[in-house]
Structures are given as structure tokens and as C-alpha cells.
Write a structure and sequence with these properties.
68 residues; alpha+beta; four-stranded antiparallel beta sheet; 1 helix; 4 strands
Length: 68
């Protein structure tokens, strides 16, 4: 894993809070032309992760949407 910029961590934390409310499994991070580059998810199968953070005992992965 590589170290993610603190701005991306802050963005991920905001999106994780939204996910907790909406029940979504994956959320885009505000990055890229159409916010379609980076994502966060607790489901590692949905993400090709390059970093992760722990929130309330749950690991959330940060990276690219997995090609499935």
C-alpha cells in the first residue's frame, strides 16, 4: 500500500459517513474529471485498493473501482 494524501483521507471520511446513512457499498471520492477515478468501500472486492483507513472498527479501502 502507498500513503494516501491527507485530502483524499478527509474526502473518504466524508463519503464513509454518507455510506453509513445511505447503505451504499461504494462511493466516489471527489477526484478526477467526473469524480470517477477514486472510490472508497468496505468491500475489498469492489476496490483495487492502494490504501485503507479504519473507521469504527471497519476497514474502508481507497482505490480504483475493480473491473468485474
Amino acid at each position: 500500500m502507498i500513503k494516501t494524501a491527507s485530502k483524499r483521507i478527509t474526502d473518504a471520511l466524508k463519503e464513509i459517513e454518507v455510506m453509513k446513512i445511505t447503505g451504499e457499498a461504494i462511493r466516489p471520492l471527489p477526484f478526477g474529471e467526473d469524480n470517477d477515478t477514486l472510490f472508497t468501500s468496505a468491500d475489498q472486492n469492489l476496490i483495487t485498493a492502494f490504501d485503507y483507513i479504519e473507521v469504527d472498527g471497519v476497514f474502508y479501502y481507497i482505490g480504483f473501482k475493480a473491473n468485474k
